[in-house]
Structures are given as structure tokens and as C-alpha cells.
Amino acid sequence: MHTKDNFEYKNQKNMIVAIDNFFFRTLNKRNFLINNLSSNRDKIISYDLHISMCIKNRAKITKGGYNYILEEMWDWRPIFPLNNQLLPKITSLQMRSETVEN
Prior knowledge:
mainly alpha, 4 helices, elongated
């Protein structure tokens, strides 16, 4: 789950572990709600915003920035459209390229 020594300072390891755990818990909660999109729209958007913040914070703490975030963070996409300023830059860039390809 975690790559070795990918944090900027030694004391940030606990923070990275906490961010990763929160990311996976929130992702699981969001995925559980996906089966009923219409009634859970607000909760799903809220979870997507939490996930976005996890990715941004993980990249900020990690020594190589977005180069060393988890693969699951690279693959994540919001269910409902969100403002690009609220998304991590990797997600907003990938979503733009996917739109251009289609």
C-alpha cells in the first residue's frame, strides 16, 4: 500500500498512513452509495470532495508530489461533475484529455 521512504521528512510517515487510511475508508463509503445515485447525490459529492482533498494532501506531503501517490488515487474519478479547482491537478488534467479523446 505504501512505498518506502517516499515522504519528504521522516516524521511525515504517520501523516501519510493516516491520509491513505482515510482515503480508502471514504472511497469504500462512496462506492457503497453508488448503487442508488439519485438519492445519495449529496453524500457522494461530499465523499468525492473528501477524496480529492486526500489526494492533494498526499501529493503535498510526498517527496515526489503526484509521482508517488497510490495507484488508486491516480485511477479515482468523481461520479458527478465538480469544479476543476476542487480537484487534484492529475484528475482534472486526465478528465480534460478524456473529454478531448471522445
